[in-house]
Amino acid sequence: MSRQLNRSRRTPRGLLLAAATLTVSLATLASPALAAPADAQARIFMVNPVQSSGDQTLTDAKDAASAVPDTAYALATLRNLDAGGGLSGTWADVRSNTGSAAKVADAASYTRHDDQFEQVMAYFWVNEAQEYLQSLGFGTELPGANDRAQPVRIDQWGADNSFFTDKKAEIRFGKGGVDDAEDAEVIVHEYGHAVHNAQVPGFGTSEEAGSIGEAFGDYLAVEVGAAADAKYGWPMRTDLACVADWDSVSYTNTTPHCLRRLDTDKTYADKAGEVHADGEIWSRALFDIRTALGPKAADRIIVNAQFGFAPDTSFSAAATQTIATAQDMYGSAAARTVRKAFADRGIPGV
Length: 350
Fold this sequence. Notes:
Helix content: 40-55%
Oligomer: single chain
Number of strands: 8
Distance between the termini: 57 Å
Strand content: 5-15%
Radius of gyration: 23 Å
């Protein structure tokens, strides 16, 4: 806040400072808005409406609120907000260029028909993803993994696409069909790219590194959603390995609707030279590590290993680094388990 000083008269400097201090102190006491809300409630999707309902027939219906059941929503607390009254806080800073900015005071009233609902979803799920990483020890016993306020723009991209850009280290969510920020797994997928870039600036400069980036985004999306379901007691009525069940209803013709899956049988021999397709090789290995070691140990290894990746890492080099990280953190048995997961995908050099 800038202030215009009144220079028409002189006041002794000591008195001026004392008066200014008193004014600020009284203003602080008189203005509860200066304190961030500790219990701000918001209406959000429990990951996404298809996952929580199990209904594969749901469609976008041009953003109609009536297209999804009321039971798809939950009231949840928006944590770590600052005192501004908007969706800005410790781990997320959300903006919109296509409609009015969401207000924390109204966050419990928005439905998917409102542009502000996507802003609320983005804030909640980016914050949830960072809190999940912190629950694994990142930022305390382990290095922080994108532990900063992540800039997010909603509907900045006027097409049905979303992406992370390293130019501003910003996530942008698109619109069209199911608007992307209506699906928590799309939100957290893009956050996965931000995590990778924070760990290794410029990550993804080769096709295999790009594939690892897409795979990690898919894996983190599923993992954060599953952790939230368990944490809040929300229902999960679709297959855990299916990514973005709700967003994908607009562009898939078969059920279950999935953008991609974590449990395909793809191996290195199936490489197609396209990052999203080849990412399913890496994500299956991550999913197998999770199955064998459990979510917490697997995720600590997977994320911690990424600090040692190069921007243009290969599948082979990244697998070797992940095996070594498992050895350092949990010993030989864990390292053998991780090695097997990558060997089963035919990744060379492991």
